[in-house]
Write a structure and sequence with these properties.
The chain contains eleven helices and 13 strands. The chain is α+β, with helices and mostly antiparallel strands and 374 residues long. The strands form three sheets. Strands 1, 2, 5, 6, 7, 9 and 10 form a seven-stranded mixed sheet that branches. Strands 4-3-8-11 form a four-stranded antiparallel sheet. The chain has a two-stranded antiparallel sheet with strand order 12-13. Helix 7 packs across helix 9 and helix 8 runs antiparallel to helix 11. It starts with a helix and ends with a helix. The N terminus is likely disordered.
Length: 374
Amino acid sequence: MKRCLLLLTLLFAQLSAWAHKPSDSYLTLRASEGSADIAVRWDIALRDLDYVLQLDRDGNGELNWGEVRQRSEDITRLATSRLALSAAGQPCVWQPGQALQLDQHSDGTYAVLSLTARCASLSGELKAHYSLLFDVDPSHRGLVQWIAPGKANAQALVFGTESAEQTLTLQAASAWQTLRQYLVDGIWHIWIGYDHILFLLALLLPSVLVRREGQWQAAPRLGGAVKEVLKVVTAFTLAHSITLSLAALGIVSLPSRLVESAIAASVIVAALNNLRGTIEGRRWVMAFTFGLLHGFGFASVLADLGLPQGALVLALVGFNAGVEVGQLAIVAVFLPLAFWLRGTRFYRVGVLKAGSLLVAMLASWWLAQRLFDL
């Protein structure tokens, strides 16, 4: 038991370093009719640039505009060495654009590079090879919106260590391509959204147990556990789908720090409830109520990805469906294992009680980070 608790402690200590989403950069590549140039906007997180280039020269743990501006040439040099565009087998040449700027994303401040890739011609096959940060962070991804000449809809691409080179098509992305790409993005986001996962798991942990005489006991039948899981997952899905859609369509907007802080608080409430069982039988109400907040969190990521205006509904449906697929995959792994262990002291004490306490402690640290922008 002590060894298991130690492993749980080490796991959650590792998760505390991931209070924010993993490393991404955002690229918009736009070509115009009658020109062989590709306009590039590239947003790269300052925390990533600081890690690679040590921008914080005075070592005070904070980056100011002067420190970033002084290294603008180094930032540009790093970026252009990690992205290669070619047309018809000929490399495109980088040309400087506007001065370096800063912009805010849902997870912090980003440096914004404006560049031009001058190609010999855009009539042949276009390829992009991306390798930013792969040598220091294999989980890093480059999220690209490619807008072909004369096309309104963007082709969404995701560059990773296993997909470092991809083709930029000159035709507009098909409905299936758009739906598929945002489906994959939705699955990926729920799998790396540790606060969302821990909130859902905190609600599901008691689903294989029943509360009798103030104590947790093993649920007698799998059917009852499945019913409880379905109620929680359906309520959470319905709630975050509502606010995700409202926020993505620009109907409702909330400050990112407020949303992220409230999400951390929801994890604390869900975890602490497992210690006392005060909302036993009505966890679906908690799932729906806090699910509304989690929907705004999903929307901030979707906004960072970019929504193609000509295929807005498809992108929204694909991303939302991806979140649900990823969520169901987590449940499919959790439920059989939890039901198998439900009668053991390890599950009732080590997983439910000790695990919930560790989750609450971790979420409290996230809450402090987000409230005070640590």
